[in-house]
Amino acid sequence: MSPDSTLESRPADAAAGRDLEALLGDAVLRRDDHLNAPGFVIRPDAVQRVLETLREDAGFDHCSCVTAQQYPDRFETIYHLKSYDDPTREVSVVVPTAVADPVSESAEPVFRTADWHEREAYDLVGIAYEDHPDLRRILLPDTWQGHPLSLSYDQAQPQVVTLSEHENPIAGDEHDADSETMFLNIGPHHPSTHGVLHVKAVLDGETVVDADPDIGYIHRCEEQMCQNATYRHQIMPYPDRWDWVSAGLLNEWAYARVAEDLADIEVPEYAQIIRTMGAELSRLASHFIALGTYALDIVGEFTATFQYAIRDRELVLDLLEALTGQRMMFNYFRLGGVAWDLPEPREEFIADVRGVLDGLPAKLEEYHDLLVTNEIFQRRCIDTGVLEPEVAKQYGCTGPVARGSGIDYDLRRDDPYGYYENLEWDVVTEPDGDNYSRVLVRMRELEESAKLVEQCLDLLVEWPDDDREIQSNVPRTLKPEADAESYRAVEGAKGELGIYVRSDGTETPARFKIRSPCFSNLSVLPEITRGEYVADLVAAIGSLDCIMGEVDR
């Protein structure tokens, strides 16, 4: 995007951009501002210096997302940086590389989360990163030919994906001769991996020496499918299928936010309230299944906690089905609002929602009795899987995983959207950073989501009948301005769910990048499991609450 109207129309942002440009000095080649962030095009050999300067001197300590893409004349990597203290402070660091030699410096020495993000960029787009500690494919098999999101990729070429022989990853390493070091495959078809996750674990007896999460078993080309779909009608059904467990309204909102930003679409206040209510019902559904499956992992609580949690999730899904017409893949949001108003009879639906909320406090007491005060559960979870706050920030962790480490970061409050800034609620944090803390955060967030839904209901009941506008007037065909770029995010059930879109002036995106909270959260698994027992590794996996459909996309 050319440096034009965006920052000039916002003096504060323009001043901030000039200050940053002066701070970065000769590393900046030119400006390339995005719709919601100042952008700087820098030399590919200055990546680490620029990112370290922005982190240490300007407070951009959150590498939120890394986007790679190809233009006809260059490759490009974009590091989307934010501040954990104020996520509305954003900056885009754009790194161009030549088509003939797409190599730039790795950001991994500055932000550990860039390890996985740059591996994905190499895998799908074909950009190489010098100084990267482990530059290999992450989603596609090692034997895959070509890079699917590069312009030169031949989609018709045959792919012969051979089964490579398993090699011992610790061969040649120096170990104590008396140790019992072994290599253990966990998953991808193991019930405690919560999906097709393969963990390559190196053990010394029962102690985890290292754990390498191996992902990509359910990669479905979601970004490319969105790039082939139209903004107005065809993209919205896809987000439901990323994190299908958290109920897709949270996912749909991520796409709605970035598309409405690009097309400058206003959403009616009444529709914002319905969106907020539906999103918090989705969060309830997600946290219920997270608690139930975690109890199953830790103490084998199938007969009580798991079944209670699934029962309560089903009650929430009944409400979402009544609202949207579907039980799993909702496709309820529309650009500019929602598909339709509350179901009729309206009073009956509102009474049903209140009925579920009224029964929640007693049920949460049951969960506390079954889990929080359970001595076995405590021994499995307290002081295991400890994630220190600075490590969480280095890996770009968000959501309950970050808040369980005391990081007070929640986009609903810190980068307000929808109707959240008009409602009363609290961001939940726990200080200890262990598996137990992450469970406590989700349990307490159930109460906060219920408070938000209750307030939305009160507003919807009192709303005048003749002012129930569910959608703004949106053109049948949307064609955002060519070269407009925007990264927008919402607070999903698992954390920051963001989307970067670049427009080329047509009705389909030129680039559509999904920032999955599960992707970044899962990358921290080795850090919280080294030195733990194998059983603690299982507990740590469950505490991250990752859905592999969203990790792989």
Please tell me about this protein's structure:
This protein has 553 residues and is an alpha+beta fold. The protein has two domains: 117 residues, Beta Polymerase, domain 2, CATH 3.30.460; 312 residues, Cytochrome-c3 Hydrogenase, chain B (Orthogonal Bundle), CATH 1.10.645.10. The protein is 40% helix and 16% strand. The strands form five sheets. The protein has a five-stranded mixed sheet with strand order 1-2-5-4-3, with helices on one face. The longest helix is centred in the middle third of the chain and has 31 residues.
Q: Considering the protein shown, what is the CATH homologous superfamily of the largest domain? A: Cytochrome-c3 Hydrogenase, chain B
Q: Judging from the principal axes of the Cα atoms, what is the shape?
A: globular
Q: How many H/I helices?
A: 19
Largest sheet: 5 strands, mixed
How much helicity do the residues have?
A: 25-40%
Keywords for this structure?
Cytochrome-c3 Hydrogenase, chain B; disordered N terminus; 40% helix; alpha+beta; Beta Polymerase, domain 2; 553 residues; three-stranded antiparallel sheet; 2 domains; 15 strands
Summarize the structure.
NDH-1 is composed of 13 different subunits. Subunits NuoB, CD, E, F, and G constitute the peripheral sector of the complex. The protein is an alpha+beta fold and 553 residues long.
Question: Mind sketching the topology for me?
Answer:
Elements: H1 5-8, H2 11-24, E1 28-31, E2 39-42, H3 47-58, E3 62-71, E4 74-82, E5 90-97, E6 103-105, H4 114-124, E7 128-130, E8 181-186, E9 198-204, E10 207-214, H5 222-227, H6 249-263, H7 269-299, H8 302-324, E11 333-334, E12 337-338, H9 346-358, H10 360-372, H11 375-381, H12 389-394, H13 399-403, H14 411-414, H15 435-462, E13 485-491, E14 496-503, E15 509-515, H16 517-523, H17 525-529, H18 534-544, H19 548-552
Helix pairs in contact: 7-8, 7-15, 7-18, 8-9, 9-15, 10-15, 15-18
Pfam family, one: Complex1_49kDa
Subunit structure: NDH-1 is composed of 13 different subunits. Subunits NuoB, CD, E, F, and G constitute the peripheral sector of the complex.
InterPro entries: NADH_Q_OxRdtase_suD, NADH_quin_OxRdtase_su_C/D-like, NADH_UbQ_OxRdtase_30kDa_su, NADH_UbQ_OxRdtase_CS, NDH1_su_D/H, NiFe-Hase_large
